[in-house]
Design a protein that fits this description.
This protein is of the alpha/beta class and about 220 residues long. The protein has one domain: Alpha-Beta Barrel (TIM Barrel). The chain contains eleven helices and eight strands. The chain has an eight-stranded parallel β-barrel with strand order 1-2-3-4-5-6-7-8, surrounded by seven helices. Helix 1 packs parallel to helix 3, helix 4 packs across helix 5 and helix 6 runs parallel beside helix 8. SN-glycerol-3-phosphate (G3P) binds next to helix 7.
Length: about 220
């Protein structure tokens, strides 16, 4: 399973890259706004750090506006993937982008059939949001499992990026259902490395090391 970082913070991205854990990055307007920096500058810098796909979100509501933004965003760097919302206008823009060879990531997917339509329109990536669905007493991972089965039944090449990850169990479940990619906040990546028994074990070994006579 590929791991993307769901952040626009270049410090976090550099740290994740140093750990060898970053196959790509996803951003959204909320994440970029938290940096307090201009949109294009941030995306450009991230694309210089990461060689894998970097999702940058288009915000137009109409097809023509989305296509215009897709052209602009994809000219920032060759690894930019244009994030397009799951709407009728969005699907039209995805189709137009696919015809031009521009990669897209259809975002804000909350139903497996929305994901199937996105793949059919020609999306390279589809992003089901599990955490936001769980927040409303839904079952986010069921949607992901359904979507993966649908895409595989019909040999779609779109990759499923499990998004809106809240905790390590979402990552475990993503891997168990065979998701192509999971995009995780940096704090979740950090928590995946930790276990109290690892800390306790290190502490005990260090203490015992001190007891070994110095030769
Ligand atoms: O990048 C999209 C998605 O991962 C957002 O997550 O936590 O705002 O629901 P969240």
């Amino acid at each position: 399973m590929k791991i993307f970082l769901d952040t626009a913070d270049v410090g976090e991205i550099r740290e994740g890259v140093a750990m060898g854990m970053v196959d790509g990055v996803t951003t959204n307007p909320t994440l970029v706004s938290r940096t307090g920096r201009p949109f294009k500058e941030v995306i450009e810098e991230i694309c210089g750090i990461v060689s894998g796909p970097v999702s940058a979100e288009a915000v137009s509501m109409d097809t023509q506006g989305l296509i215009k933004e897709a052209n602009e965003l994809s000219s920032i760097a060759s690894n930019v993937v244009v994030k397009i919302p799951m709407t009728v206008d969005g699907l039209k823009a995805v189709k137009a982008c696919a015809e031009k060879g521009i990669k897209t990531n259809v975002t804000l997917v909350f139903q497996s059939l929305q994901g199937l339509l996105a793949a059919k329109a020609g999306a390279s990536f589809v992003s089901p949001f599990v955490g936001r669905l769980d927040d409303l007493a839904g079952e986010g991972m069921d949607m992901v499992a359904e979507l993966l089965t649908m895409l595989s039944n019909y040999n779609y090449s779109a990759e499923v990026i499990v998004a809106s990850i809240r905790h390590p169990m979402h990552v475990v479940q993503s891997a168990m259902v065979g998701a192509h990619v999971v995009t995780i906040p940096f704090k979740v990546l950090n928590s995946l490395t930790k276990h109290p028994l690892t800390d306790r074990g290190i502490e005990a070994f260090l203490k015992d090391y001190e007891k070994i006579p110095k030769g």
